[in-house]
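User: Can you predict the 3D structure for this chain?
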Amino acid sequence: MRLTYEVLSNVQWTVEPDAEQWLAGYTLGDRLVRTWSATVDADDVEMAAEVVFVRHNADFRPDGQAGPSLSVGDVVVVRTADGPVALACAPVGFVRVALPANVERRRSWREVTAERR
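Assistant: Here is the predicted structure, written as structure tokens:
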């Protein structure tokens, strides 16, 4: 089935630069920036997240100039007929999480991360 997804890049490290926090992954309330939205063909949301991971870590990734590769702590939101499902990128695979509320959708990843410089 064709599913719509959004990639939400975790930029909490720009607020609280802590390598251990970044390695720990996503925590509810982390600051996220929407970097990409598209569709993917997948049988379920977990498969969709895996396809999105491969797509957004390839050298030719669609958001190559819009944001970083998909990493631990980032969130993929997959829209289904039953509603959106959020999955956080973990050190291995994905974990379902509550829909994030702290998402920047008006400014780009580059604009948001430039705040720290």
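The longest strand covers residues 32-41. The mean pLDDT is 85.
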